[in-house]
Structure formats: structure tokens, C-alpha cells
Design brief:
four-stranded parallel β-sheet; Cobalt-precorrin-4 Transmethylase, domain 1; 10 helices; alpha/beta; Rossmann fold
Length: about 290
């Protein structure tokens, strides 16, 4: 079985910078991470083992117990920052600069009188942070959700990890259904996400199937998986080499490998080595054994 690697994959600079900052914290026990630093289970396990406290993303209404509170790479709203500071907490900020740019874009659209349409995954922590600064907005996950909006000015911006083709379809739907409105678009999909997506597109024409490495809650990883399936290429989403099942690869001669923007290089290397070790014969044997169990 041939294994082809995407020419752009894995950790982006925002995640690298956040992890580097964490390495410089001398007393992890004095810090509570306000949510998940990044959506990567291996990273989160390592941080817990080092002594950092964590509040789950669903529990961030709680006041963290430690004097220092770390804002994750996904950012928070201005309201949430004030709430934590009013509780006497000192903030350590690892917000990705490109997420901060998305916040600025949403605020600017609102200040200029636009009803803000946020393209992104409803409930995602980054999107929650963006809309926490707004009073007039809608979140749109796909073009089927677009409707006629009772506003003269519509401003469109994006979650930084949104898929470019989905953004384009939503923009077109907004224009068709809202001919009465002045529409302004600010492209806030981050450059690393775009490069990961473009690299995947180049690879999809060369492979029979794809392996995508990344956290289960990683939006950009899930978008890569979704794009594979939209193109008719079978895709296996794994968090580590332990998730690989040799039987899955039995029908495929050439498999591609890519990874989301919060995936460690060591994890990618581990998965790559495991894929190379899956010979067609081993895959076929596993496939037969699996069929015999059924």
C-alpha cells in the first residue's frame, strides 16, 4: 500500500505559540485553562499530567479556582474577559492572532451598522466568543440555513476554520435571498486552514482513500474529513495510530495522509509509520478475519 503525504498538514503557528507559552509557565498548579487549550486529546492529557487545571468548555460559567486563568487559542468575548477580571483573576492570553482578527472584523461590521452573519459551527467555542461581542447576529452553518433577513445591511464573516467552499455557497445564498440588502464580506478564514484545505484538494486526485489525523472536537479536522467525503473519497478520522484498523485498508492501493492544525508532529509521524507498516497482505488478512467474525 502506497502512502502519500499532504504537502501542508499539522500544527499551525497559533497552536505552536500557545504550547510554547505553556512551556514557560513555572507553576502549572496556579493556572486554570479556561476550556480546551486546543482540540487535541494528546495535548490535553499532557497538560493535565503537568499539573494544569482545566474547566470544560461546557462549564466555563464557573469562576476558576486559581489566581491565573489561561484564555485558550480559541479566544473569548470581551464580556467574558471582564467577568473573569472582575472576579480578581489575572489572564494569560493565548488567543490565536487570527482568531483575534475575526473578533475585530465582527465588531467592525457591527460598529458600521451591519447585522452580522457568522459562518461557523453553532456551539463551537470560537464562534461563542465572536458572537459574545455582538447584539445583532445570526450563525449560519450551511447554505440551507440562509433566509431573508429584515436588515438593510448584512455583514458576513467566518469562523477561522470554516471550509472555503461552504463559505462561498453561503455568500451566494445570502445574495440571492437578500437583494434588498447592502452586503459586505470580510474573509476571516485563517491562512493555515486555507492551505490545509488546498493541500488536501491536490492530494484527493491521487489517492483511493484518506486518513485524517486530529482531535474529535477539532473543527478544521472535521472539515477536512467532510471534504474528502464530498469528493467521494473514503476517509478515516483518527486521533492516533491506535485508531487504525488494518482491515479498513484492504480495498485501497494508495492512501493519503493529512492532519488538522492542532495535531502534533509526533502524532503524525506515528500514524505515518503505522500506515507504512500495513502491507496489502496484512490488510487482506485482517479483512478476512473481520468478515469471519461477523
Amino acid at each position: 500500500m502506497r502512502v502519500l503525504l499532504a504537502d501542508v498538514m499539522g500544527m499551525c503557528f497559533g497552536v505552536r505559540d500557545a504550547l510554547k507559552l505553556m512551556d514557560g509557565i513555572a507553576s502549572p498548579q496556579s493556572v486554570t485553562i479556561h476550556g480546551e487549550l486546543v482540540h487535541n486529546e494528546a495535548v490535553l492529557t499532557d497538560l493535565q499530567q503537568r499539573g494544569f487545571r482545566m474547566i470544560g468548555e461546557a462549564d466555563r460559567s464557573q469562576v476558576p479556582p486559581t489566581p491565573l486563568v489561561l484564555i485558550t487559542a480559541h479566544g473569548v468575548s470581551d464580556t467574558e474577559r471582564r467577568r473573569l477580571e472582575d472576579a480578581g483573576k489575572q489572564l494569560v492570553d493565548t488567543t490565536c492572532p487570527l482568531v483575534a482578527r475575526a473578533h475585530d472584523a465582527a465588531r467592525q461590521l457591527q460598529n458600521d451598522g451591519y447585522h452580522v452573519l457568522v459562518i461557523g459551527r453553532r456551539g463551537h467555542v470560537e464562534v461563542q466568543g465572536v458572537v459574545g461581542n455582538l447584539h445583532s447576529y445570526d450563525i449560519i452553518q450551511g447554505p440551507e440555513e440562509v433566509r431573508r433577513y429584515p436588515h438593510a445591511k448584512l455583514g458576513i464573516m467566518c469562523q477561522t476554520t470554516a471550509a472555503a467552499d461552504n463559505v462561498q455557497r453561503i455568500r451566494e445564498a445570502v445574495a440571492v435571498l437578500n437583494p434588498h440588502a447592502e452586503i459586505r464580506f470580510i474573509d476571516t478564514v485563517c491562512h493555515p486552514t486555507k492551505e490545509h484545505q488546498k493541500s488536501l484538494e491536490r492530494l484527493l486526485d491521487q489517492v483511493d482513500a484518506m486518513v485524517v489525523v486530529g482531535g474529535r472536537n477539532s473543527n478544521n479536522t472535521r472539515e477536512l474529513v467532510a471534504r474528502c467525503r464530498q469528493r467521494g473519497v473514503p476517509a478515516l478520522h483518527v486521533q492516533s495510530a491506535a485508531d487504525l484498523d488494518p482491515a479498513w485498508f484492504a480495498p485501497y492501493g494508495t492512501v493519503g495522509l493529512t492532519a488538522g492544525t492542532s495535531t502534533l508532529e509526533s502524532t503524525i509521524d506515528e500514524v505515518h509509520r503505522a500506515l507504512v507498516a500495513i502491507s496489502p497482505l496484512a490488510a487482506s488478512r485482517s479483512h478476512v478475519l473481520e468478515e469471519n467474525r461477523c
